[in-house]
Every structure is written in C-alpha cells, then in structure tokens.
Write a structure and sequence with these properties.
The chain is built from 14 helices and 5 strands. By secondary structure, the chain is of the alpha+beta class. It folds into 2 domains: 57 residues, no CATH class; 195 residues, Beta-Lactamase (2-Layer Sandwich), CATH 3.30.450.180. Helix 1 packs across helix 3. The longest helix is centred in the middle third of the chain and has 18 residues.
C-alpha cells in the first residue's frame, strides 16, 4: 500500500485476481486501494500481503498504513530528538570507525569524526541540511563518493518511504519529499516506485577523494530506548585494503592541515563537502 492510499500490485495480477486471492470482494479491495477509511482486519491484511507477495518489511509497512484512524496516533513527529550523552561518548570512542546516529526522516542526529571525514561534515551544515537523503541528492559529490550511487540512492528513497508509513502525519517529512520531488528527477521517479526498505546491514562501496576505494560493511542497530533512533557503524574486513584505507583516513584527519580545512577535490572534514548550498536543496 502506498502512502497516498494505493496498494502496490504484483505485475501481471489484476485487481480481481488479488481480491480473489485475498478472499475479499473487488469493491472492498478497490476501496482499500483508494485509501478509504475501512476498519480492515489483520486477517484481511495478512491475506492481501500474501496475495501481493510482500516481504516482511513491506508487510509491516502495509499494516502501518492500513491502521484505522481511531487506532493510529496523529503525532506530527516534529519534536526534537535528543541524543543521550552516553551515546555521544560511544561515537567518540569509536575513533577509527565511522559511526552516526540517524533519527526520523533519516536525519543525522550525531556523527563521529570518522563519519564526517567519510561522508561530509554534517555538524557544519544548517540543521535542515543534516539529513542523509538531502546529502544523497543535494550534495553533488555524493554521486562520485558512492561507487554504485544509483543503488544506494534508491535504497535511501525506499527507507524514507518506510519512514513515511511509520509517521504519516510528519509535516517535515512531507516537506522533504515535496521539495526533492520537485528538484530531483531521480528522487521523483524512485519515490513513485513506492518501494519500502529497511537498512539493517550490508555493504557499501566508496571512492573517497583522500584514500581512494573502500568497501565497508555496515550494521544499523535500533536503539531500545528510542525506536526512532538507530546507530549505524561502518567497518572494514580485517586485513583488507579498505581497513588500511580507514587507518589512513584516521591518520589524515589528525593532521593539523586537515583540521584547518585542507582541500582535496573540494573536500574538507572541517566544513561541508561539495555543493549542498550550491544545489539549492538547502537555503
């Protein structure tokens, strides 16, 4: 089911076939597709998810979107998300490993020095710009930093759609989606695909302007004290060239020249890398 009330249909299946597989009438299924306020049961949602062959993340997304209005809190999800001091200490202790804390809308709530050196200095950006989706689409150097930018960018969009299902009344998320839909053709096309995705673990390939190519594994851990925050940590395989590259990056950012903003291909860990301001995404 999409955030605007439309269910994603399996290619080749007509509404009549999905309704039959789910054990509901075609009229009932059409009303569900159009986002009508129906007190749909979990049994029906289960049947629809099986008919649509949804994976576990998509199934959860369907259930979140289909909750009746009376059972669904209309929180705007705009309250500030403080990061506990202990978590900030943990980021600081991980001095050889890029790590950051993500919040709602994939906002970057906190990051350590290695994460800022790997990606960009989120702390130097306006608060509105401290967002992983904005970085991916508004910083022109992100396209060269990620070796497979298209794949990672599509995953980011699908993750943001999952956030939209969890917080459907978040005006800041709606503003972000609207702005990027207008300003970026890739984002607009991938948002229309209505895919959902949850980052839990995997690998990413980078080509960093200072240390060259890296392949990093990541683990994204939801924090028990706040399900709207998660810690993402990037690691390299032991003994690999990527591990050596991370060591070189850690050594480089400790040099006085780095802390004073030495440039390399328009990159500096002491300030925004690339063109977030130039792109027009952040005023």
């Amino acid at each position: 089911m999409s955030d605007d009330g439309g269910y994603r249909r399996v290619p080749g299946l007509r509404r009549e076939e999905i309704a039959q597989l789910a054990g509901v009438s075609v009229d009932y299924y059409v009303r569900l597709e159009r986002g009508r306020r129906l007190n749909v049961s979990e049994t029906v949602l289960d049947a629809i998810s099986r008919a649509l062959r949804l994976d576990p993340v998509e199934r959860t997304h369907l259930f979140q979107l289909a909750k009746p209005a009376a059972g669904r809190p209309r929180r705007t999800a705009t309250r500030p998300q403080p990061v506990r001091p202990g978590l900030r200490d943990l980021l600081r202790i991980l001095e050889h490993t890029p790590a950051l804390v993500l919040g709602r809308r994939l906002d970057v709530l906190a990051s350590n020095q290695m994460a800022r050196a790997l990606l960009t200095d989120f702390d130097a950006l306006p608060h509105r710009g401290r967002n992983l989706v904005r970085f991916m689409f508004c910083d022109e150097t992100a396209r060269s930093l990620y070796t497979h930018w298209d794949t990672h960018a599509q995953d980011i969009v699908a993750s943001l759609r999952r956030e939209a299902g969890r917080h459907p009344h978040d005006p800041l998320l709606a503003e972000l989606v609207g702005e990027l839909s207008i300003k970026d053709e890739d984002f607009r096309r991938w948002w229309a695909d209505q895919n959902v995705y949850r980052h839990t673990h995997g690998s990413k390939h980078f080509h960093h302007p200072i240390v060259g190519p890296l392949t990093l594994n990541y683990e994204s851990l939801t924090l028990p004290a706040d399900p709207d925050q998660r810690l993402s940590v990037y690691t390299a395989e032991a003994g690999s060239g990527s591990e050596e590259a991370l060591r070189l990056l850690a050594a480089w950012i400790r040099q006085p020249e780095a802390s004073h903003g030495r440039h390399a291909d328009h990159w500096t860990p002491a300030g925004p890398r690339g063109a977030v301001g130039q792109s027009g995404c952040v005023p």
